[in-house]
Amino acid sequence: MRFRRYPRPVTERKRIIIPHRGLAASKTRLAPVLSPEERMALGARLLTRVLEVARQAADDVVVISPSASLAALVEAAGARLSVQRGLGLNAGLDQARREALSDGVDTLLVFHGDLPNLQASEVDALLTACPSPRGVAIAPDRAGTGTNGLCLRPPGIIEFAFGDGSFARHQAEAQAAAARLEIVRLPGLAFDLDTPADLARWLELGDAA
Asked: How many structural domains does the chain have?
């Protein structure tokens, strides 16, 4: 995958934010093929994997979630839980961003917690692709409609626009902010495990999914 590589700030402080609904609410679209207990176990496995990869790429990793019960899993992976006060994915990310800005974070990365094939090298690729000093790097999903990874430099350069059609909306936000934009397409970033078809593909192909 070719993209322009931008130099990172010499004293950059980066943070990875991973939003999560909580294990009891995770993977509801898999209800036709998995029991509630199986969905919770899969959600825990996926989040643990993403956290392990994130910690290879950064020392500062935060999970934002309304579920305080995630604390043990998150802390065991060397990350920190911030309990979300408001409702909705974008509201939670806004809360996490305010905390990051208060802590003096220069660059913010966001990844979903259901990327089973994510690699630390892909996290680093998204960070490297993020334009400096003002820029946005987006990693779309396989369908090219959603956003699975986002890098913001500085953290407040655009508004979060996750949800249906977020890839196009994040691009529009970057354009409105006159920010440099890079698109990063890598397999581990693109594959999110969300539907029964995704699960079947992953079980069949593993890291090649």
From this structure: 1
